[in-house]
Amino acid sequence: MKHELLPRDKKLRLRAAELRKNATMEENHLWYDFLRAYPVQFNRQRIIGEYITDFYCAKARLVIELDGMQHNTEFAMEYDSIRTAFFESMEVMVLRFSNREIQSQFEKVCETIDLAVKRRI
């Protein structure tokens, strides 16, 4: 399935731009210190279907999601599971990292992302 074939709810454009503008410290760290200069292009706050991903690599069909403490509730875990199932139904792999992992295991997170991209392209 090609990148162009992924559905996008264009009504979410303003929200995606707002999320880019107000990125978390961890999102900015991953973006500016790894993904922005990564040899395979990533996009921030990419719309896929009715969801806005934190990061998306079209070439590898890979979503990266960073989860803060709010993702630890039962409702959030169920919502994240539904999101992941949707992406996987589009043949898009999802990698989830907690904000704590970004803060304390940054090199390991980057290595995991790099390995996933290389396996998928």
CATH topology: Endonuclease, Chain A
Largest sheet: 4 strands, mixed
Written as H for each helix and E for each strand, in order along the chain, the element string is HHEEEEEHEHH
The CATH superfamily appears as VSR Endonuclease
Number of domains: 1
Tags for this entry?
single chain; 121 residues; alpha+beta; Endonuclease, Chain A; 17% strand; globular
Summarize the structure.
The protein has 121 residues and is α+β, with helices and mostly antiparallel strands.
Could you explain how this protein is built, in words?
A hairpin with a 2-residue loop joins strand 2 (47-48) and strand 3 (51-52). The chain has a single domain (3-120), classed as VSR Endonuclease (Endonuclease, Chain A, 3-Layer(aba) Sandwich). It has 5 helices and 6 strands; from the N terminus they run ααβββββαβαα. 22% of the residues are buried. The model has no long low-confidence stretch (mean pLDDT 90). The longest helix is centred in the last third of the chain and has 16 residues, at 74-89. Helix content is 47%, strand content 17%. The chain is globular, with a radius of gyration of 14 Å. The chain has helices at residues 13-21, 25-35, 74-89, 99-104, 106-120, and strands at 43-44, 47-48, 51-52, 55-57, 62-67, 93-98. By secondary structure, it is an alpha+beta fold. The strands form 2 sheets. A 4-stranded mixed β-sheet has the order 1-4-5-6, with helices on both faces. Strands 2-3 form a two-stranded antiparallel sheet.
